[in-house]
């Protein structure tokens, strides 16, 4: 079976420029706090975080494809593995494991081993409905949409909400056939 | 998959051991996030000054936390109580942790006794930012200015901190100068060098008592310029106003 590219993002992560994770963590915290103050509603904040993630995802995919040196993934399973092992590593320096595949191979869970977003974080009582890391859902959704996959990404477990791990569910809704934006008659 | 991804549970975030601060994420991850911060705030304002103020506020909350974190981790629960001490702390310790390097320079303004400048050839947050013409003097460094203000304020040295682009001869991109103007009463050294207040006691009450006490001690001020452990350059004039 031909290999499609690196099985881990370690080498790429070692090559890219990096910054202290605490700057990243605290900046993210500042964003969430600002949203909570502005929007005053936890649901709205979840939505906005997801939207921000989506914006990031649609741009981040370019860098991923340019640097990860991978060829086309044959199926969604491989895509998910690639995100977990290469994608997370390349940008956040952590890896995730993919579990709980459904029979059709269109829905799986990703368990994050570490999560740099949540250092120093504790949710106060007033924010119990907050998906603090919702930005990650948006990133995956946005990035996959740019490679013709409509997905739905949700948190199923969150340590900040009392669970024992960080776990995302990624569900493939449909594969959009590739359309060329340019017209032939030009 | 038992044991995979099991994050250890702590009943309280304070029970969790403090990280060593050696973890890293990619610069692009930070830059993407920062750009979202700027873009989101752009939707919330209708002028540049307001946008800078909001970025500064975001930075302030980072600075306040950085101060506590670093005093605890790097300084053995001690906090600088001298003006030049805290400036050097910002210029070296804070910069090193947040941006991976000591700031390019720390200078004292000559026209005004109470002004200091931290300059950086290429500020991390400005690396991938180009300002559209119609946004005039807008500088994303306002976020970093906010961090500096957060650190200084938390340490008891309130200041007005702003970020400016300063053109450099022979360079295409301007450098960024963080201008620090201390509030009136902070102008001279406090002489409190032998007294250290644990950083983690920075509750409002302690701050209050401390600032009272300091203003009393201010009467016995003296110059500490010659005891500096870092170079302070004096520049002829402020170019960045």
From TrEMBL, chain A:
Subcellular localization: Endoplasmic reticulum; Golgi apparatus, cis-Golgi network
Listed name of the protein: Trafficking protein particle complex subunit
Family annotation (Pfam families): TRAPP
Cellular-component GO terms for this entry: cis-Golgi network membrane; cytosol; endoplasmic reticulum; TRAPP complex
Keyword Zinc carried by entry: no
GO biological process: endoplasmic reticulum to Golgi vesicle-mediated transport; intra-Golgi vesicle-mediated transport
InterPro entries: Bet3 (IPR016721), NO_sig/Golgi_transp_ligand-bd (IPR024096), TRAPP_component (IPR007194)
Function: May play a role in vesicular transport from endoplasmic reticulum to Golgi.
Principal location listed in the UniProt entry: endoplasmic reticulum
Record bears the keyword Plastid: no
Keywords: Endoplasmic reticulum, ER-Golgi transport, Golgi apparatus, Transport
Quaternary structure and partners: Homodimer.
Family: Belongs to the TRAPP small subunits family. BET3 subfamily.
Organism listed in the record: Eucalyptus grandis
Automatic annotation (TrEMBL), chain B:
Keywords, in A-Z order: Endoplasmic reticulum, ER-Golgi transport, Golgi apparatus, Transport
Predominant location category: endoplasmic reticulum
InterPro entries on file: NO_sig/Golgi_transp_ligand-bd, TRAPP-I_su5, TRAPP_component
Superkingdom classification of source: Eukaryota
Any one Gene Ontology cellular component term annotated for this protein: TRAPPII protein complex
Cellular compartments annotated: Endoplasmic reticulum; Golgi apparatus
GO biological process, one term: endoplasmic reticulum to Golgi vesicle-mediated transport
Listed PANTHER family: 41-2 PROTEIN ANTIGEN-RELATED, TRAFFICKING PROTEIN PARTICLE COMPLEX SUBUNIT 5
Family the entry assigns: Belongs to the TRAPP small subunits family. BET3 subfamily.
Protein name: Trafficking protein particle complex subunit
Protein species of origin: Eucalyptus grandis
Source lineage: Eukaryota, Viridiplantae, Streptophyta, Embryophyta, Tracheophyta
